[in-house]
Structures are given as C-alpha cells and as structure tokens.
Specification:
This protein has one domain. It is mainly beta and 606 residues long. The radius of gyration is 23 Å and the shape is globular. Residues 1-66 have low confidence and may be disordered. Bound molecules: fe (ii) ion.
C-alpha cells in the first residue's frame, strides 16, 4: 500500500516561507495579473519577462503579503528573507508557519481537463538566465486535488495524481504541460461531479455509510507518487496499485497496466521509487524498479513475493530477479537501494492492528492506513537481495536494525573490504494518523525526526553499524545518477531551517550535503534558505552534458510561496547553491501542488 509514501509528503510539505525576497516584489506584481483560464486545446503562454535579480534594498520595500487571499501575516516583525537562514537558536516554527504551510494544501489551479498542447513559457517572469546547456525535461507528479466537489481530503496523500513536465530546449526556451492521471477514480468522479471512492488515508465513507467491510482493503488508485520516463514511455506510479501508462507527447493517460516497458510485473503493482544506474557506458545504463506485495499471496503465507526489474537505455528488459521476502507483510518497502552486486529493501517494523481495524476502521472512525501501526520493540529489517552471482554465493540476507521507519534512501555503494554503505533518511517513528490538522509548532520539538544516516553493513557476518551524519532534519534526497551504486560525495535534499539535535521545522531550504565515502564523519553542508513563507519540494539533479565532476550540473526545485501565492521552479548551479538560484521560473497565476516525486529526463524533448 502506498500509505507510507504519503506520510512522507507530510514532512515534505513542511517547507516554510520566508521573507519576501527581492524577486518576490516583482513576482507579486505579476500574480495580480491572472491570465484567463486555459483549456485543453489552448496554447496560451505563460509570459516570461527577464528581469535582473533584485537587491536587498528592493526586498526591504516589499510588502510581507503580496496577495489579498494569502494567509495574513500576524507576527510583529516582517518575514525573514531568502538567503542565509536565521542562525541556530533564533528561529522555530510558529503558528504563522503552520498557517502558511497548511494554506498550500489546496486544489491546483491547473485545469482538470489538462493542457496536452503545452504552453510556451515566454515572458512569464524568468528571473535570471536559464543555462543554455540545460536541455531535457523535468517530470513531476503529486496530489493535485485536495477537495473533490465540496468534500475536502484530510490527507494530502489521497489527492488525485497530477503529472506535469517542464521542457528546456537548450536555447533558453521553456515549455510546460500538465495532465491529471486519468485513473478510474478520477475519471468517474469528474464525470459524476462528486466523490465516489475512499482513499487509503481518508476517514469516513464518501457514500455516507457508517460501516465498512473490514476486509475490504480496496482503495482508490490515485497514481500520485512518482513518474518515470524511459525508453520513450512514461508511467505514473503509486505503490499500492498498478502503474498508469501516459503518452509522453501530451501526458494523456493510456490506462492502468500490468506491464511496464513490455515486462509483465510479477506483482501487479510497482513501487513509485526506482533507481537509474548510469554505469560506465551507455550500454551499462539501466532503469531498476521493483514490486513487492503487501500481503503474502501463496502458501504457506510466510513470505512476500517481490521482483526487481532492469531495463536498458532503449527500454529493453535485461533481467527480472524474483525474491521471496520473509515476513514482510505491511512492511511498506517504499524505496530501494542498489549496488553493483546487491539490491536492498528496508522492512519497517509495522503491522496490521486488528483491534483498530475492528473497532475504528470498520465504523469509519479511522483511515485504513491508520490500522497499520509501528509495533513497540519490533526491529526494522534490512533485506539484502543478490543482484549478481557474486552476491548469490553469499546469499539473501535479512539483517536486524533498531526500530525506525524508512521512506527514502540516498545511495549505496560497496567498499573494497566488502563492507556495503547504505545512506538513508530514516524517521524515528511513523504515525499514519498524522495529517494537516494535527501538525502544530510543538510537532517540531523532538518527535519523529529524519536525519542523514549511514549504515555500514557486512553481509557475510550479517552485522550493521548505524551512524547519523547530519542533525539537520531533511527529506527528498537526490543526487547525480552517474554515482548511483558507486562511491559518492554529494547529495541534495529539502531541509529545515533549524539545525539542532531536538528542534526542527518544515522544509524551507535546499541543502547540499558533502560526505566522505571512506568514513562515517559528519557531512558538511551548503544551504540556500528560500525565506519564511516559502516551502520547498523535492530537488532534482540535472547533470551538465559532458561534465565529469559529481556536482557539475544544476539542481531544480519547485517552491510554493504562501505569502505571495506563487509557485516557482528554481535552477541552481549545483557546485555553489549558496549563491542562490541562477534562474527562477514563475508559473504565473498558477498554484502547483506541493508535489511528491519526479525525474530529470535528459533526452526527453517534447
Ligand atoms: Fe517517496
């Protein structure tokens, strides 16, 4: 089930705003000129004006709230500006922070009828200059509707998937297109103009009944978590159900499928996360995805069927490796890691709570996802699954870890001494009842923190040493795919403003981490803070064509500004993010949802 996937977003979403930066003064002005609504056949343009990056003096003249409908700014001081984050100990999330953050969880302004033609972003406030070598397409997916014909979703993770792409033509031109994923649920509800289906995180029954069949685990496939473009094909991914094939040219939906790139899925669902293995040459390049069933489907029901799939650069299947993963029921293996010889899945210490199922869920008093709970004292398990003959000689392993909850991993690699290093962002714990209404400033004092953590594993002795490398809470890691599965030093993530062992906050920063692959010494950081009213999404790394240095390229990140009510895509030179974005694209008049995951497709130009 994709329950887990969504709790993540909760954290993701926690990106906060900042002082209205200089750029925002101009952006705010642009926002007041809302263009007419677009239709599926229109090709209206987002105007792009190239404006110089504003100065600090400009920023001081900027009103704190740039839109009449934005949350009111209630603090007796102006919001903090973009740039350097407030010093440690001088800032914590406030009620204003929570109010701003919650305001972003609303329906997108993008049409539910799509924009298959695409729109050229022509004069729409591109601040700075888009790098000429940046050529390719950024794909993103995320929940686009949080209210369906008058019924609000109390959980972000249940929103219908909205896939959008931003294509850079390499000559400074930018094209944007979007489409909701045409799932059965989305299509039926749009036709009926009412909510018809329950989501995994929803409380209550859209049909109005006060009783659920407790054994009915069927929930709406919202197709909202990931997107992959490979071998000319595009799929919207949600781990609780089948993938949806999309037309790469206009992001229209072909339909729900049981095959991906011609490969029949062993388990009729596919995780929203995958790894892109670049290898040494184009011939080595692989897309590596996986499936794992949430409950055993075969006798004696003690293991969960799983499979790792690999496709070459052309989209041709090269191998399918099947595994039986013991005792992994409701383990939420959301993400994976891969090295030259191994695949890795992390099993969460979760289990179905039958009492909650029969006393709360059955009477529509809690969501299905809330019946899956962390079990006190239960260990997490690292499953080491052989990818090559060398690993098969060691054998499939299940290594016990301390209790913690895993969503997203960073990277893994093998050391010469046989140790395997796995870097991840584990949560201290996970509570699936957490939702938009339950988060408050106190939530960010201790609690379920998420820190850059290194696991050094000896697969032969079945041992693991766990070390925290950074005490800045963060989520949504990304890196240069050329270093996936290999020794690496740089990773990028969404991060909080506060760097502290206890306190933290919503994600309001882009963070560049630099680690030592040969030791467990703390990472060093570079940080760009977007300002007090801005909340950041997952960063994506785009390599410079021909570049060899690991951080030679750009980081792309969509940011929602609650004060100015804008959505912007920022582009950073990855080698120096602290200087701020080199270009920022305003999606003029549009609210892009605080999204989940995406990818950079270098060769995709549509
Ligand atoms: Fe995820």
């Amino acid at each position: 089930m994709s329950i887990a996937a969504r709790a993540v977003a909760m954290r993701d979403a926690r990106t906060v705003p900042a002082r209205v930066d200089a750029s925002r003064a101009r952006v705010g002005a642009a926002v007041t000129r809302k263009p007419p609504r677009r239709t599926a056949t229109s090709s209206s343009y987002l105007s792009v004006r190239v404006v110089p990056r504003a100065t600090a003096a400009d920023a001081s003249e900027t009103p704190a709230t740039a839109s009449a409908s934005a949350p009111r700014w209630d603090l007796p001081r102006p919001p903090h500006d973009a740039g350097a984050a407030p010093e440690n100990g001088t800032w914590s999330p406030t009620n204003q922070t929570i109010k701003d953050w919650r305001s972003l969880y609303k329906n997108t302004t993008l049409s539910v009828k799509g924009d298959g033609e695409g729109r050229v972003i022509e004069g729409a406030a591109i601040e700075g200059e888009i790098p000429k070598e940046l050529k390719g397409t950024l794909f993103r997916n995320g929940p686009g509707l949080l209210e369906i014909y008058g019924k609000k979703l109390n959980q972000f993770f249940d929103g219908d998937g909205l896939v959008y792409s931003t294509t850079f033509d390499g000559e400074g031109g930018v094209k944007f297109r979007h489409n909701f994923v045409g799932t059965k649920g989305f299509t039926d509800e749009q036709a009926a103009q009412q909510m018809l289906y329950k989501g995994a995180f929803a409380i209550g029954n859209p049909k109005g009944d006060s009783f659920y069949n407790p054994f009915d685990f069927d929930v709406k496939n919202v197709a909202n978590t990931g997107v992959v473009n490979w071998g000319g094909e595009t799929y919207a991914l949600w781990e609780g159900g089948k993938p949806h094939k999309m037309r790469s040219s206009d992001l229209g939906t072909v339909g729900e499928v049981e095959e991906v790139l011609g490969t029949k899925l062993r388990v009729p669902q596919m995780a929203a996360h995958y790894r892109i293995w670049e290898g040494e040459t184009e011939a080595d390049k692989r897309l590596i995805g996986f499936s794992i069933e949430s409950q055993p489907s075969k006798f004696p029901w003690t293991s969960n069927s799983a499979a790792f799939y690999e496709w070459d650069a052309e989209g041709k299947s090269t191998v399918v490796n099947n595994f039986d993963v013991p005792n992994a029921t409701f383990a939420f293996a959301h993400d994976c890691l891969v090295t030259e010889n191994w695949y890795f899945l992390f099993q969460n210490p979760t289990s179905l709570n039958p009492q909650k199922l029969l006393t709360e869920y059955m009477f529509a008093e809690c969501a299905l996802a809330e019946t899956i709970c962390m079990v006190d004292g239960k260990s997490a398990i690292l499953h080491c699954l052989p990818r090559t003959e060398k690993a098969r000689k060691i054998g499939q392993k299940a290594i016990e870890l301390k209790p913690q909850f895993f969503f997203h991993h960073i990277n893994a690699f093998e050391r010469e001494n046989g140790d395997i290093v796995l870097d991840s962002l584990p949560w201290v714990f996970m509570d699936f009842s957490m939702n938009l209404d339950s988060v408050n400033p106190a939530f960010f004092n201790g609690g379920s923190r998420v820190e850059y953590t290194r696991f050094v594993v000896d697969p032969v002795r079945e041992t693991c040493k766990q070390t925290i490398l950074n005490n800045r809470v963060g989520e949504f890691p990304t890196m240069n795919n050329k270093f996936v599965g290999r020794k690496y030093t740089h990773a990028f993530s969404a991060g909080t403003v506060v760097k502290d062992d206890v306190k933290w906050g919503p994600n309001q920063c882009l963070v560049k981490h630099t680690s030592d692959p040969e030791s467990e010494s703390p990472v060093s950081e570079q940080v760009w803070y977007y300002g007090e009213r801005c909340f950041v999404q997952e960063p994506i790394f785009a390599p410079r064509p021909g570049g060899t240095a690991e951080d030679d390229g750009w980081v792309l990140q969509v940011v929602n500004d609650a004060g100015a009510e804008t959505s912007k895509l920022h582009i950073f030179e990855a080698q120096d993010i602290a200087k701020g974005p080199v270009a920022s694209i305003l999606f003029e008049g549009e609210h892009l949802p605080p999204g989940l995951h995406g990818m950079w497709a270098q060769d995709a130009l549509y």
